């Protein structure tokens, strides 16, 4: 495996291989991404200048179906990161039994520095550059960090212009009016909520006495915070990229969401002028939030937040990974040694891609579902696969992450082997 992030992701594969009997051919074909595309996207900026941005689309494996995965806009996007994210998507889709392979895209850009018109030109330029590489039966895009329904709409529209036919199924997470699915916007949070709800009783944890800290207050983190708050959990800390707030008695999440939506920093809510000193809330950094003494910690921001450097300081009893890759493989071992139970990203945050699958199905059938139907199908799948993975973890006495990879590997191995293995060709088996 090439880059450092990707080789870290590969460690998880190594761990899981010990518990499966998949063919060597399957292992060999999962070692490297199938196709990695790097493109340069020229964009005419509002001041008349021309700027060229680097973009990527990686298809890791498509044995189980067309590539599927989001597109990320972030200044730190690299090919190595996109390859790792595509690797995770491959295992996520297999773990949830979605008929997709894994893919991912990204552009190295700080979208906050672009005007809306520049953002539209960049998004359409990205599709111009990768149009021959994607398609409803080839590779399907979706939102990820700092991309949203609007961006997906531009991308679908641009692809349709290039192909001269309306092609809603090439992108999921679109605006509802352009063929998007009800429930897609909240799907990642909703999926994580269903996993948390189904797993906590196994630890004898009723919501009222369960404290939660959430790092990241974007689409997934903020909606999950509200779902947990409404279900009676005590959400004691939340943070965004600027910092966070903590209250031992629990935070008023709907008010914080309301405040944040008017595009202010979370910390500012309690720490502008005198307010800071008159409320029970304390400000804290993102790093402090991770080490709070809580029952449930939810990293819902970016990858590599819990590493060898801070894993020993984590005091939460359980971690539910809503971000992709927030814990490094070295940190996994430290957390495990300290008895901290980790529920992995490829299960916990799979609600997003699961409803993306439902959106793709709706686009192709032309029949659209109600929100109740979407949520009901999502709950069924999330709970069923969480229970399957739980049973593997229990039966083999292995961590949930390894169990999730074992579960996904069996499905991937079956699909790869169905095309023939060394044993089949040489020994007739
Ligand atoms: N970006 C999301 C993820 O990492 C969603 C991907 C999708 O819907 O295809 O799972």
What does this structure look like?
The chain has 429 residues and is α/β, with parallel strands linked by helices. Among the domains are: 33-168, 3-Layer(aba) Sandwich (Rossmann fold); 187-348, Rossmann fold (3-Layer(aba) Sandwich). It has helices at residues 4-17, 24-29, 79-95, 116-130, 149-163, 187-199, 219-230, 253-261, 266-271, 275-278, 286-290, 329-337, 345-348, 351-365, 371-396, 400-417, 422-427, and strands at residues 35-44, 50-61, 67-68, 71-74, 102-108, 139-140, 211-215, 234-240, 243-246, 282-284, 296-299, 318-320, 341-343. Strands 10-9-8-7-11-12-13 form a 7-stranded mixed β-sheet. Helix 6 (187-199) crosses helix 7, helix 6 (187-199) packs across helix 14 (351-365) and helix 6 crosses helix 15. The two termini are 30 Å apart. The structure holds glutamic acid.
């Amino acid at each position: 495996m090439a880059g450092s992030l990707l080789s870290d992701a590969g460690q998880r594969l190594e761990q899981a291989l010990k518990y499966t009997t998949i063919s060597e051919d399957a292992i060999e074909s999962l070692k490297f991404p199938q196709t990695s595309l790097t493109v340069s996207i020229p964009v005419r900026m509002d001041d008349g200048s021309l700027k060229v941005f680097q973009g990527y689309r990686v298809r890791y494996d498509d044995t189980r179906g067309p590539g599927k995965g989001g597109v990320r806009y972030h200044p730190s996007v690299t090919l190595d990161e996109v390859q790792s994210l595509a690797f995770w998507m491959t295992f996520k889709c297999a773990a949830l039994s979605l008929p997709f392979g894994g893919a991912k895209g990204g552009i190295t850009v700080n979208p906050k520095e672009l005007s809306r018109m520049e953002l539209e030109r960049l998004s359409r330029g990205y599709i111009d550059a990768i149009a021959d590489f994607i398609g409803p039966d080839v590779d399907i895009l979706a939102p990820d960090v700092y991309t949203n329904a609007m961006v997906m709409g531009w991308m679908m529209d641009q692809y349709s212009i290039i192909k001269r036919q309306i092609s809603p199924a090439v992108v999921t997470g679109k605006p509802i009016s352009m063929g998007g699915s009800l429930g897609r916007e909240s799907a990642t949070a909703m999926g994580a909520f269903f996993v948390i709800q189904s797993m906590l009783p196994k630890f004898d944890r009723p919501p009222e006495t369960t404290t939660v800290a959430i790092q990241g207050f974007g689409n997934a983190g903020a909606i999950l915070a509200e779902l947990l708050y409404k279900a009676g959990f005590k959400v004691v800390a939340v943070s965004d990229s600027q910092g966070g707030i903590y209250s031992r008695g629990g935070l008023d999440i709907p008010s914080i969401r309301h405040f944040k939506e008017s595009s202010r920093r979370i910390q500012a809510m309690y720490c502008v002028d005198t307010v800071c000193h008159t409320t029970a809330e304390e400000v804290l950094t993102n790093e402090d939030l991770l080490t709070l003494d809580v029952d449930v910690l939810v990293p819902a921001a970016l990858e590599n937040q819990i590493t060898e450097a801070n894993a020993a300081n984590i005091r939460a009893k359980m971690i539910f990974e809503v971000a992709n890759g927030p814990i490094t493989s070295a940190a996994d071992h430290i957390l495990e040694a300290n008895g901290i139970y980790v529920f992995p990203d490829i299960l916990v945050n799979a609600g997003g891609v699961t409803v993306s699958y439902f959106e793709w199905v709706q686009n192709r059938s032309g029949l659209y579902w109600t929100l109740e139907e979407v949520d009901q199908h999502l709950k069924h799948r999330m709970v069923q696969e969480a229970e399957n993975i739980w049973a593997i973890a229990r039966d083999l006495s292995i961590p949930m992450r390894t169990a999730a990879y074992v579960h996904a590997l069996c499905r991937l191995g079956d699909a790869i082997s169905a095309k023939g293995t060394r044993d089949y060709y040489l020994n007739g088996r």
